[in-house]
Amino acid sequence: MAASNMKAVKLRIKSVQNTMQITKAMQLVAASKLRKAKEKADHSKPYLNILKSTLTDIARENNDFQSPYTKSGADENRWLYIVIAGDRGLAGGYNSNLFKFMEAERAGKDIDVLPVGKKAVEYFRRRGVNILTEEYAEVARISVSDSFGIAKLICNEFSANHYGHVMLCYTDFVSMLSQIPRAISFLPLSDLLEHTLEWEEMNDDGKNSAAKKAAEDVAASLEAKDLGVILYEPDSESVFNTIVPEYLAGLVYTSVNISVASELAARRTAMEAATDNAGEMIEKLSLYYNRARQASITQEITEIVAGAEGQ
Amino acid sequence: MATFQLQVVTMDGLIYDGEVESISLRSVHGDIAILAKHIDYCTAIGMGTATVRLPDGTEQKAACMGGMLSMMDNLCRVIPTTWEWSNEIDVERAESAKKAAQERLDDARLSNEARVRAEAKLRRALVRLSSAGK
Predict the structure, then answer these.
(1) In which domain, by residue range, is B82 found?
(2) Considering its fold, how many domains does chain B have in total?
(3) CATH code for the domain of B111
(4) pLDDT tens per residue, range A40-92
(5) What's the mean pLDDT when you consider all of chain A?
(6) What is the ipTM of this complex?
(7) How many CA atoms lie within 13 A of A20 on its CB side?
(8) Is B76 found in the same domain as B49?
(9) What is the pLDDT of residues A8-39, one digit of tens each?
(10) What CATH number is associated with residue B74?
(11) Does B26 share its domain with B39?
């Protein structure tokens, strides 16, 4: 084994070490960001749960009132998907899982998308899918007022009969190691009621917050009591029309928070694996390097000995 | 006095959860006050100062804007867009927001949309200032 080979191995070790340093740093950054993101996602959960149970109560009780959000006049096959993906790659299967899921979702449907996150914008632009707006391309910058902006936009589009259904696609944070893409229904509200049960089931991860429990208890007791005596001011319809955009904004904001937490968790896991792999690779390469070094020494000795004997 | 459970929850999390004597705030229809054993009730919240009366008689004020209030089965759920306790309001920021909004409104060439936005900003700043007691 020649010295040039040894040099190549040494360079390779160096480059793997550099890569490892980067993946290690990314892992640590993702881990520390994840803690904050998880907290934020947990904080916005009770809001969503309480708001949803209230809205469901109202919707369940009022079958007769007319709201532009209860039904759409548009073609049933016109769908709008809000897709929340990441801004950056290197997060394991986070983005590709979501897009794979989206491909299955959109099959046979006439869809427009409202992408949130740079990766989502890039993906749908490449596929030639009609994009409603690219205003919310950066998922890291979505604020409460942005979610209200999105909600308002959706409500306007829906009331104008541009879409028959509005769905939201995001990545649910199941645990630190598992994040699953999901789609939930936004509008019309009849879809929402159908989905509510599903949603409650999937949210039931055994770690129910006290607020959610309370909200559920109330919902249960209300059901038991048979409703019909809630006083609305000014009237149920205008209350409903005011709170629907609020609710959607809450849904968008919470989903964004959950997705961000999922992205960070996915990145952390991926980077952890990459760091481990790099470590293994360095070990293998050093072994190889040492072997080469020894071989070259042995060879030198043999040459010297052979030279001495020849004299 | 009889009490009831009040939950105040915003997108930032559960802000308050506990027994209170009364809560009063401004709905889209005007000022309302909720006491214990109120009829099941639901309304949309306007912009104004909310006052929560605790069982020990003390009162806490907050700037409360947007969202909804529902009273069901003696459980009152307030789900506002913004809820800021009076002692947490950043008065300086509200003052500067008020000034900035007023300056914008003084500009005669302002487009309609921008005018509406500036007016909303001004109103929010005013509500914050009055809730902070200044």
Answers:
(1) 4-87
(2) 2
(3) 1.20.5.440
(4) 888 877 787 777 777 777 666 665 556 677 766 667 778 888 888 888 888 88
(5) 80
(6) 0.70
(7) 15
(8) yes
(9) 889 999 999 999 999 999 999 999 999 988 88
(10) 2.60.15.10
(11) yes
Query: Are B82 and B50 within one domain?
Result: yes
**Using a CB-CB distance cutoff of 8 angstroms, which residues of chain B are in contact with residue A250?**
11
Neighbour tally for B79: CB within 10 Å = 26
* Distance between B74 CA and the closest CA of chain A, angstroms: 10
Choose among B27, B68, B73: nearest Cβ to A246: B68
| A182 close to A91: Cβ distance less than 8 angstroms | no
Q: Are residues B16 and B61 in the same domain?
A: yes
Domain check: are B94 and B123 in the same one? Answer: yes
Residue A233 has its nearest CB partner, among B7, B13, B43, at B43
